[in-house]
Amino acid sequence: MTPPFEPAALLRGSRISNGPSGGETHQGRARTATKACPSLGSKFPTQDNLCRSPRTTAPENRRRERRERQLNASPDSPNTMRDPREALQSAAQKLSLAAAAETRFLRDLFGGRRPHPSTEKLAGQNIVIVGGELFNKGAQAMTFTVVDNLRRRYPDQDLYLLSYADYERPDAEKEQYSFEILPWGTEARLGAFTERADFLSDDENATATIREVMNDCACVVDISGYALSSQWGFNVSFMYLVNLAMASSYSVPVYVLPQSIGPFEYPPLEAGVLNPLMNLYLSYPEVIYSRERRGVDALSSYTTHNVEHELDIVLQNEGYDLENVFTDVPEFETIAVENDAMGVVPNSRVMERVDHDRFYAHYDAAIEAALRDGYTVYVLRHSTEDRRICEQISARFADEPRVCLLKQDLNAIELERVIEQFDFMIGSRYHSIVHAYKNGVPAIAIGWADKYGDLLEEFGQSEFFFDAREPIQRERLVRAVSTLAATNAEESEKIDRLRSDIVEGDVFRRTFPPA
């Protein structure tokens, strides 16, 4: 059986400096050896460790009950909404939002959009962040990164994260952050367009607050990791464009920070609705940064003057000032990883595209190869939804003490501090690979979208990319593990050298106007 977890060293402080662990480089970093798999008793509130607030209002009770139904529903269920009243209300909200968006579109198309805002100097008290959230650790890392950098640049502005899922968190948990969280589901978007639809809302105060925020808004910052694409279907793309239409209706500038975009291979009926919206609103943002060059190509059918290629903001980030992110900086614990360690970060999105038996057999073979080469293997999740997969992978090695499951729901900062200790890793979550490359850790990427291959190509690591949309050759995967087991030091130096060229420019300084 896997031995019990042991507590690791405690790390305290309000600032994370250049490079994890006090700026140590990947080569020659000091590690604390343990005889068993380490553990983390984190004081950071997570989905597994929610701090419940005793003060609840009627809307908050309804939101909590709805969230609990969603969390308790079977992950295979196509519909987690059980209350017929909620289903009817949701349908009315979606129809009303579509009508409001169509009205806005026709007004902008035939009457002309409001004058484009001046961006020579930031004007407005509020900065609104859309596309971010705190459950997925990649999205959380992007949220922390943008909040930190905006706080440094605009210390007097108020920051708002629009996120439906995070708004449903208990008040005590939300209050730990230096930014305010507001809802951004269908009803909130509808409320941003018109107060006449407030009767459809469970929380009229929240939708009224959104309108107040937008009426004194300096800019909207979009940090969607991957949303505008036919791979996610019509609804996700439509909601993305609604964000742009909403900002345009308030004459507020938009900055689309690095994210994956495209392809746009919609079915004819969906394309007939989306293409006019994309033609009109994709030219509105001050800048659209695509993480991949093929995203730049995909956007060229709709706009070119405001499109640039730029790598992920987390990859470029040199460290967090946690006082910019938290109202009261929490204490963080970190995990001490064995010398000669390989990390494994799976992804449920990959499992959707691979036969389940074959999926686990690939990981079996890769882990067995690492064990033969003398490595300890750590299985950990980079998103809440991957918990079950991690448990299944580690359970297949229940009698192997060198395969360790990290059960905790670590936050993005804690995850990075674990990943930076690995000699190399197998990663399927995009930002797990970003965290690895940021710290000079080579990675084998098993990905399900173009963004993985493009990222590895930027770092000269294409031989270690495995596209789950095509059959994965298990023998090649095993060879890749053995190769990195032997050459991870050389690959680490290459990654560090290439990253130093990437981060020379400050994307925030180049992008945002002075306060």
Question: What's the arrangement of secondary structure elements?
Answer:
Blueprint lengths: L5 E2 L2 E2 L8 H4 L14 E2 L18 H15 L11 H28 L14 E5 L6 H17 L4 E5 L1 H4 L3 H4 L5 E3 L3 H8 L10 H12 L1 E6 L11 H16 L4 E6 L8 H14 L5 E4 L2 H7 L7 E3 L3 H4 L15 E2 L7 E5 L2 H4 L4 H17 L3 E4 L7 H9 L7 E3 L6 H8 L4 E4 L2 H9 L4 E5 L2 H9 L6 E3 L6 H29 L4 H5 L4
Parallel strand pairs: 1-3, 4-5, 4-7, 5-6, 7-8, 8-9, 9-10, 12-13, 12-15, 13-14, 15-16, 16-17
Antiparallel strand pairs: 2-11
As a percent range, the share of strand residues is 5-15%
- The computed structural class is alpha/beta
Q: CATH-wise, what's the superfamily of the largest domain? A: 3-Deoxy-D-manno-octulosonic-acid transferase, N-terminal domain
Q: Give the low-pLDDT segments.
A: 1-36, 38-60, 66-81
Individual helix count: 20
Task: Kindly provide the radius of gyration, computed on alpha-carbon positions and rounded to a whole number of angstroms.
Answer: 23 Å
CATH architecture of the largest domain: 3-Layer(aba) Sandwich
Termini Cα gap: 58 Å
